[in-house]
């Protein structure tokens, strides 16, 4: 029996409540059976702030999703050499789960910049996308927001509020409850010895404090 699997990548440096809410909104509104969190091994777009080890970022995710049977952690990008390109991760999951429907979950801020991603056109052909709105980054015109190189490959259904790719995949847009929480602000607060309560799950906050992850 096939499953509907959401793939959610990111540096998770640290994972916070907005990440969890994005995953939950995608799961709830798109009928996903499970959401897999995939910490980046070597992020391709920008240097990893603070050089926080992959193992610690995975542990924070593990603690954040503990107790939610619909959420899982994958360490696949830490097991692969080189830059952590999303298309390679999607291809690996497609090979391992040939009968399942894959949905790549990203924030609207990332979607608006997807034309800068490595082999971005293949992402649209390899799986469906779920774009969850982030504060200050509405996707007001989905078709116009697409990279020009692939615009002709997708058509917009205003009724369903999704883009349909000619390969059979789709891009669905979810407007839920955007939370204006950023990992960079959490790192700044933690480095200054200030409280990060209500920005991260309690167990993540305790781990950051115990390990002094963002302390100089």
List the helices and strands and how they pair.
Elements: E1 4-10, H1 17-30, E2 34-39, H2 54-65, E3 71-73, H3 86-96, E4 101-107, H4 108-111, H5 120-126, E5 128-132, H6 142-145, E6 154-157, E7 162-165, E8 170-174, H7 183-191, H8 202-211
Parallel strand pairs: 1-2, 1-4, 2-3, 4-5, 5-8
Antiparallel strand pairs: 6-7, 7-8
Number of domains: 1
What percent of residues adopt helix (DSSP H or I)?
A: 25-40%
Query: What CATH first level would be assigned?
Result: Alpha Beta
The SSE order reads EHEHEHEHHEHEEEHH
CATH homology superfamily name? HUPs
What is the second-level CATH architecture?
Answer: 3-Layer(aba) Sandwich
Number of helices: 8
Biggest sheet: strands side by side, in what order? 3-2-1-4-5-8-7-6
Largest sheet at a glance?
Answer: 8 strands, mixed
Cα end-to-end separation: 50 Å
What is the fold-level CATH name, i.e. the topology?
Rossmann fold
Output the radius of gyration: 17 Å
Strand content: 15-25%
Shape: globular
Q: Pick out the low-confidence regions.
A: none
Rounded mean pLDDT score? 94
Tally of strands:
8
Class from secondary-structure proportions? alpha/beta
């Amino acid at each position: 029996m096939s499953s509907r699997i959401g793939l959610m990548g990111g540096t998770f440096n640290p994972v916070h409540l907005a990440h969890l809410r994005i995953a939950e909104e995608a799961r709830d509104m798109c009928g996903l059976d499970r959401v897999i969190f995939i910490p980046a091994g070597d992020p391709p777009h920008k240097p990893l702030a603070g050089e926080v080890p992959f193992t610690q970022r995975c542990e924070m995710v593990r603690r954040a999703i503990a107790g939610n049977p619909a959420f899982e952690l994958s360490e696949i990008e830490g097991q692969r050499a080189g830059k952590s390109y999303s298309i390679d991760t999607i291809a690996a999951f497609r090979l391992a789960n040939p009968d399942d429907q894959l949905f790549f979950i990203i924030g609207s801020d990332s979607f608006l910049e997807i034309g800068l991603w490595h082999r971005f056109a293949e992402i649209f052909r390899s799986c469906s996308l779920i774009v969850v709105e982030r504060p200050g980054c509405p996707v007001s015109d989905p078709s116009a927001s697409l990279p020009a190189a692939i615009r002709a490959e997708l058509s917009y259904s205003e009724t369903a509020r999704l883009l349909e790719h000619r390969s059979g995949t789709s891009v669905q847009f979810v407007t839920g409850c955007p939370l204006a929480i950023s990992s960079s602000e959490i790192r700044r607060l933690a480095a200054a010895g200030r409280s990060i309560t209500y920005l991260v799950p309690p167990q993540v906050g305790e781990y950051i404090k115990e390990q002094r992850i963002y302390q100089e």
